[in-house]
Amino acid sequence: MNVGPQATGQAPDPLSDAFNTDCPGRAVFDHVTNRWGMLILAALGDGPMRFHQLRDRIGGISDKMLSQNLRALAGDGLIQREVEPTSPPQVFYTLTALGQELAAHLQGLLDWIALRTHDIVAAQHQHHNQD
């Protein structure tokens, strides 16, 4: 599938061409598609969560990795850290408008994976048995 400036014969904009090593969007792509970014964004699609709720929702993520990914995604403008002025303060993480838009797309991917997991596992077994 050819989409974007290349499809129309225009030169790609290096600031929006993830195939270009200098594209700032590549870092965002890395944050979103790393092992945890997609799961964090999808989990927050269900609504605001506290740190421990996110950690419990996403099996296998360490506190350190959750914290690093939350910082990166917040830096990309995809999530927001909100501090409730209570004693002790309560911190919630929510999706920004950009994050909500992205999470909707990611949920579609997660839904497709859930729908096709049996087919993929069967293909993996077939491939493994051919070797």
From TrEMBL:
Signal peptide: none
UniProt keywords, alphabetically: DNA-binding, Transcription, Transcription regulation
Domain of life: Bacteria
Record-linked Pfam families: HxlR (PF01638)
InterPro entries: ArsR-like_HTH, HTH_HxlR, WH-like_DNA-bd_sf, WH_DNA-bd_sf
Mitochondrion among keywords: no
Domain HTH hxlR-type: 23-121
This protein's name: Helix-turn-helix transcriptional regulator
